[in-house]
């Protein structure tokens, strides 16, 4: 069933508001849409699992290469050209459900590709990286399918991080690149998770 226009407008009002202001807001229309609630809860759980796997890989990078603190690596980061996948549509005044979920889907696709660099970096942890890649692809596909099922139009946004990975000039640059791919992915997941969680609680 298509999501009523009023529900999409209500989502927009909620998601650009400060997160703390969302509690207690009336969501009679949205809470009555069982398909949409199921969509939120399923993808919330999946996002939580992916966040845990990214955190596990961040610990591996820290333990293996002693790359643990982002602020110590910012100068190297400037040389790498690794961009953060955008998610501004999930908390902007012009919020639309189609735009937010499309950006989540597109960002997941971009990070799925970027994880190839992490796989090369951590061959001893290939199974964890490959599981993360598979889960990332599945979550992206789930969102695409759920959007179609809910009658949400799909929107494609150009993403800076969607192109080929940079050529790392040294092994150290590759290690730092892997560090920032994971750090960016974790931030991306936090934003996506926060949007889904606060909608699902209402």
Q: If you average the pLDDT, what whole number results?
A: 79
| Helix/strand order | HHHHHHH
Biggest sheet: strands, sense, closure? none
The number of helical elements comes to 7
User: What structural category arises from helix and sheet content?
Assistant: mainly alpha
Question: What is the annotated CATH architecture?
Answer: Up-down Bundle
- Quote the beta fraction: under 5%
**Helical residue percent?**
55-70%
CATH third-tier fold name: Growth Hormone, Chain: A
Please tell me how large the radius of gyration is: 18 Å
Taken together, the total number of domains comes to 1
* Low-pLDDT stretches: 1-31
Walk me through this protein's architecture.
This is MGF factor. The protein has a single domain, classed as Growth Hormone, Chain: A (Up-down Bundle). It contains 7 helices and no strands. Helices cover 67% and strands 0% of the residues. The radius of gyration is 18 Å and the shape is elongated. The N terminus is likely disordered. The chain is mostly helical. The longest helix has 32 residues.
Structure, briefly:
The protein has 7 helices and no strands.
List the helices and strands and how they pair.
Layout: H1 5-16, H2 28-31, H3 34-65, H4 74-80, H5 97-121, H6 126-149, H7 171-201
Helix pairs in contact: 3-6, 3-7, 5-6, 5-7
Keywords:
202 residues; mainly alpha; Growth Hormone, Chain: A; 7 helices; elongated; disordered N terminus
């Amino acid at each position: 069933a298509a999501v009523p226009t009023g529900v999409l407008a209500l989502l927009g009002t909620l998601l650009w508001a400060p997160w703390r202001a969302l509690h207690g807001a009336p969501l009679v229309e949205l809470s009555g849409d069982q398909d949409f609630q199921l969509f939120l809860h399923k993808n919330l759980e999946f996002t939580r699992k992916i966040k845990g796997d990214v955190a596990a890989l961040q610990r591996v990078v820290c333990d293996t290469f002693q790359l643990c603190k982002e602020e110590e690596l910012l100068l190297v980061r400037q040389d790498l050209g690794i961009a953060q996948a955008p998610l501004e549509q999930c908390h902007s005044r012009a919020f639309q459900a189609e735009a937010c979920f499309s950006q989540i889907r597109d960002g997941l696709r971009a990070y799925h590709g970027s994880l190839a660099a992490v796989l090369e970096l951590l061959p001893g942890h290939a199974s964890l990286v490959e599981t993360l890649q598979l889960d990332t692809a599945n979550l992206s596909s789930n969102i695409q399918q759920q959007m179609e099922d809910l009658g949400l139009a799909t929107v494609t946004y150009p993403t800076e991080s969607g192109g080929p990975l940079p050529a790392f000039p040294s092994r150290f640059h590759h290690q730092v690149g892997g560090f920032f791919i994971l750090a960016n992915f974790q931030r991306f997941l936090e934003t996506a998770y926060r949007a889904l969680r606060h909608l699902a609680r209402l």
